[in-house]
Amino acid sequence: MTRDPIPFVSLTPADDAAGVRAAIDRVVARGRFVLGPEVDLFETEFAAAMGASSAVGVGCGTDAIALILRALGIGPGDEVITTPLSAAYTALAVMMTGARPVFADIDPARLTIDPDEMARAIGPRTRAILPVHLYGQAADMASIERLASRHNLAIVEDCCQAHLATAGGRPVGTIGVAGAFSFYPTKNLGALGDGGAVVTNDRALAERIRRLRNGGQTDRCHHQEFGVNSRLDEMQAAILRVRLPLLSAWTLRRRALAAQYRAALAGGPLDVPPELDAGHVYHLFVVRVRTTVRGVRLQPDPREQLRASLTADGVETLIHYPIPIPRQPALAATHPAECPVASRACDEVLSLPLRPGLTDDEVGRVAAAISIACRQREAPRV
After folding, report:
1. CB atoms within 10 A of CB 362
2. What is the pLDDT of residues 34-64, one digit of tens each?
3. Whole-model pTM above 0.85?
4. Are strands 166-167 and 170-171 parallel, antiparallel or unpaired?
5. Which of 153, 136, 137 lies closest to 145 in space, CA to CA?
6. What is the CATH code for 247-378?
7. Residues 6 or more apart from 71 whose CB is under 8 A from it?
8. Which of 193, 260, 299, 369 has fewest C-beta within 10 Å?
9. What is the average pLDDT across 89-107?
């Protein structure tokens, strides 16, 4: 009997469908689509949900990072230390300001930036530290705070995968000077298009970012400084307002599914990165497939074998991320340092389906398919 496939994501509105439809109709009926009441209300509601005093809606998460850095006065000649394991947009946002991204390798367990490696990367041009709360798990913020304080560096948090996450009980995005969030459709809080936001407890910084996102205008047709056009639109803000009250329940479901995966995969052939902070929100559930033995790359590639087997069983998987940022051609001009721990992780990580609509039975089916695939791979050839 053919079973239904298990897609990696499902972006069609489900339990929120009626609310999303009503939000769209409300915006269309009002006839105002840019910087209107929906954005104003969402900014207030999102700031409260994230534990911050201010939020500023922008065009995307990449712009959120770049605008924070620009508002801090970071630009050409400056350096920002960040992680080699993330979407490349983190580093591209640094480059958008004219600053240089400097990469510090990752902690092999947490998979976020390693504070010890970060300390070694600090130089005379370093202005800020840009940790990424990867896959929904916060970086080691206590250590990062101590390091930043010692060297008088700003902390800008990339929270694009970490809506409602906490680090040591504190909301991410409020630990540094500001936090950047993305509302790309696949995020824990996603729009039906692109969007992003900055959260901060610094009201003056929020006001400058509010000005920069809108061409540097203080009021209509009066441009005080060089800004950009990066505004969260009314339609997406209205949709996000419908979904924001559901985020807590969705997050609890993600954590429950992750716990089921951990129990089902315990003692198996795959390495499951540990949960090192109870505030993990599981944007992704990642496992690691060993692809080398004593430094020699296994052939055929065990990760690709596993992916092919799961695909044949109707289970869709993805790789986040197959190439470390320093090896991206777009970063070549920054002369990035090699980061071997991140490079190995990129060779091994595999993301399994995890979304609030996933069922307990589907988690069991994914785990069973992994077990069967790994046994088949290890079976002796005759």
Report:
1. 18
2. 999 999 999 999 999 999 999 999 999 999 9
3. yes
4. antiparallel
5. 153
6. 3.90.1150.10
7. 178, 205, 208, 209, 212
8. 299
9. 98
Residue 12: count of CB within 10 angstroms of its CB:
8
Q: Using CA atoms, how far apart are residues 238 and 27, in angstroms rounded to an integer?
A: 7
Residues in the chain: 382
Structure tokens at 124: 């005379």
Q: What is the pLDDT averaged over residues 133-141?
A: 98
User: Does residue 381 carry a pLDDT above 50?
Assistant: no
Q: Which CATH class is domain 17-245?
A: alpha beta
Report yes or no: 210 and 231 within 8 Å, Cβ to Cβ. no
Q: Which residues does residue 153 pair with via DSSP β-bridges, in sequence order?
A: none
Residues 6+ away with beta carbon under 8 Å from 80? 69, 74, 94, 99, 100, 101, 102, 126, 127, 128, 129, 130, 156
Query: For residue 218, what are its two tokens?
Result: 């203080």
Q: What is the DSSP annotation of 307-376? A: HHHHHHTTB--B-S-SS-GGGSGGGGGG-PPP-HHHHHHHHHEEEEP--TT--HHHHHHHHHHHHHHHHH
Could you tell me which of 215, 174, 164 has the C-alpha nearest to residue 58? 215
The encoded tokens of residue 177 equal 């000077």
Phi/psi zone of residue 189: left (φ > 0), alpha (ψ -120 to 50 degrees), beta? beta
Domain edges within the chain: 17-245, 247-378
Q: How close are the terminal C-alpha atoms of the chain, in Å? A: 29
Beta strand extents in 30-88 (DSSP E only): 54-58, 79-82
Measured between alpha carbons, how far is 56 from 47 in angstroms, rounded to an integer? 9
The predicted-structure confidence for 195-226, as pLDDT tens digits, reads as follows 999 999 999 999 999 999 999 999 899 999 99
Phi/psi at 235 (5° precision): -65, -45
